[in-house]
Amino acid sequence: MSRVVSKLVAATVVTAVTVLVAAPAGASPSAVDPDRGPVAFANVASLAVTDNGHGTPGGSVISETQRSPLTPGTSRLGKSRSALPGSEGERAAVGPNYLLEIDHHDVSATLHSRGEPSATARADYVLTDLAAGTPVLSFTSSVTHVACEGVDDVKTEASADRLAVVDATGELTPVALPAPGDEVRRAGLPFGASVELGDDEEATSDITVRRVADFAELLRQDQWRDGDVTAVSGWVVEIDTHVRSVEARDHLDDQLDLPEPTAGAGESGSRTIRTTLVLGGVSCSIPHDFVAGGGGGAEPRSPSVPATIPAGVGAPGDVSEGETEGAVVRAAVPQDGGHASTWGVGLLAGGAVLGAAAWLLTRHTRTSGRRP
Predict the structure, then answer these.
(1) Minimal CA–CA distance to 68: which of 237, 227, 257?
(2) Which of 53, 264, 298, 372 has its CA 20 to 30 A from that of 76?
C-alpha cells in the first residue's frame, strides 16, 4: 500500500509541474508580429453621420470588430450584437431614427495554420427609418469574405441571395447586386436622416449601394490596420438626406429643374445630411515578404487568444485627421489579457493539484507512522 500511495503522490507532483510549465508552453507557438505581420479583421456593421449638413462629421458607431489571433486560431463575434445602434449611448451618437436589424450573423477573423489570414461576415440586414416608418434596405444572406494567401494571391468576395431597396412608394423592391465598380442608386425616396429634424423641416433621401473597394472606405476602430498587401470587402450604403424647411419649400414650389443639392450645402433654408453604413466590412493584410508557412512573421511567443476590438462610439467631429472616406473611432482593446489568462489558469490548476499532492503525502506519512 505504501508503494502505491508513494507512486500516486509522485505522479500527482509530476502532473502539477506539467500543468504549471507544459500548459503555457504548449499553448504558445511562435506568434506573428502584431504590428506588421499577417492579420485579418471582420466587422458586422458600422454607421457614421459623415456630414451633418453643415460640412462637418456627426457621430459614429463602429460595432465590435474581430481581429485574428497572433497564432493560428479564430476570433468570432458573439451573438449579443443584434442591432445598430444597440444602446442609448449609440443612439445618442448617431441619432434615434435609424435601426439596423442584424440576424443570423457569423463574423470571424482567422489566422490559418500556415499563417494566412482570412475574414468572413455572414448576416441578414434590415435598415428601417423609425421616424418615417419606412423600410429602407434589406440584404438576405449577405456574405463578404477576404483571404490573403500570398503576396500575389488575395481573394475577395461579396454576395447575397437578395438585395431590396425602398422605392418612391415606400415599399422594398428587389434590385440586382451592384457589380464591382458599379452601384445601385435611387433618388427622391420618402424617408429622412438618422438624426432628428426640426418640426418645421421635411426631407427626402437618395440611397447608393456599392461594394467596398478601398481600405479607406471601411468604418473602423483605430486598432484596425492595413499592411503592405491588403484585401477588403463589404457593402457601402450612402444616404444623402435633403432637408428643407417648409417655408423654403413653399417659396420654391413653382420653380422647375432645380439642381440637386450636394452634401452639406444647398439653397437657403436647406441642407444635405450624409449617413454612411458599411455592412460586413472585412480586410486581411500581409507584409511584402510574406510566404505561407514561413516568413513575414516574428519571434515573440504568445498563446492563441481570440481578439475583439470593443465597439466604438464617436462623438460628432471625431474623425481622424486626413481621413476623407472612412471614419476612425478610438476604442481601447485589453492588452496581454490572453497571457494573463493562460498563466492564471495554469497556476490555479497547478496549485490545486499541488495541494492535493500535499494532502496525500501528509496522510501517507501519518498512516505510515501508526504502523507497528
Answers:
(1) 227
(2) 298
